[in-house]
Amino acid sequence: MYQHLLVPIDGSALSDAMVEQAITFARSLNARVTFFHARPDFGASSDGALLEAMAPDAFSVAARGNSNGITSRAEAASFAAGVSASSLIKTSDHPERTILAAAKELGCDLIFMASHGHRGLKGVLHGSVTRKVLQDTTLPVLVAQVESNLRADDETRAIAVIKREHRSLAAVIRGLQHLIAEAHRVEAHPDFALLDAMLLYIERFPETLHHPKEDRYLFAALRERTEVCDAVLEELEHQHKLGASYLSDIHAALNLCKSGINGSIARLSVEVEKFAQMQWQHMKSEEEQVLPAARQYLLPSDWAAMAQAFEANKDPRFDADTDAAFKQLFSRLMNLAESAAQG
Fold first, then answer.
1. Domains, the chain, ranges and CATH?
2. CA distance linking residue 57 with residue 338, whole number of Å
3. What is the pLDDT of residues 76-121, one digit of tens each?
4. Which residues pair with 6 in a beta bridge?
5. Alpha carbon of residue 30 to chain centroid
6. Which end of the chain is more exposed for a tag (fewer CB within 10 A), N or C?
């Protein structure tokens, strides 16, 4: 059967749903996945050409966009499921060409993709990228998701928000692990500015946006409808508070690194790994125990309240400007992490 899937993604809700399907499919085959993203050629536009000439650094940031964030979230989801995954990003205004070229270059034996076309085969063939891939490919193509078939009910939308935030947080934690592991390997100081920015995100994002969604909406609604999850919810809420202690230990180790204390990188690596393992288990419990229970016990009115609060920023804790700022910070961190990895 198939051993290496190429999965084109674009960061849309359709793409997020398809990523989960691709991971499940790959796991059933013990296959590996390469997530592929084609970002627009910003430099080919008049605005891009002008910005490149006037402010090269700003152009570099704009040209990257959120591409690394999109692929990092997908890789984080794959990591959580135990599926081997990597990513490839290409700049192109003809994604169908780069999809086929990437599949050939990487030796993939299946292209697993979605279509923004309409319902049914005829509609799929009207999706320009999908249609062109199907026309020109010599590889099998599995169109696993069509946008018009994507569920858009309150339950699906609320859960998608929670999972997307899990993936963003997991991607930053994985970036933190990689940065420290590489510094430990080469016996050099890590990029302290990048480490500080990552820790700032890890500290503030959950407390400002993510945990309130869980504690005040999801967990509260579950407690109102059933008692079967009480023990799990108590443990998860305890872990929300315990995270601050783990981060304090990380900061203490990081300060030793900044002071040049011998062996401090090893200690920092241990503290980060402890925190990461706790987070992986925490998110796994939420997704494998709490969310299935919520699907079983919560009422449509519960999901409607959550979806409205999460997406429309009805709750003042989920201010739109704050949400946008964290999304921008996430994209910036993933771009910086890529630059650090490339040296």
1. 4-149 (3.40.50.620), 154-342 (1.20.120.520)
2. 15
3. 999 989 999 999 999 888 889 999 999 999 999 999 998 876 544 4
4. 34, 111
5. 22
6. C
Please answer whether residues 303 and 222 qualify as being in contact, where contact means their C-beta atoms are separated by less than 8 angstroms.
no
SS3 category, 229: coil
Residues 6+ apart with CB under 8 A from 153: 303
Lowest average pLDDT, out of 201-210, 236-245, 281-290, goes to: 201-210
DSSP 290: I
- What's the rounded Cα separation, in Å, for the pair 343 and 338? 9
Distance of CA 332 to the CA centre of its chain: 14
Residues near 227 by beta carbon (within 8 Å), at least 6 away in sequence: none
Residue type, 94: H
Lookup result for tokens 């969310």: 291
Query: Across the strands, what pairs with 113?
Result: 143
3-state secondary structure of 151: coil
Task: State the DSSP code for 196.
Answer: H
Query: Helix and strand tally (H, E) in the chain?
Result: 16, 5
Torsion of Cα atoms, 285 then 288 then 289 then 295, to 10°: 140
- Output the six-digit token pair for 287: 């997704």
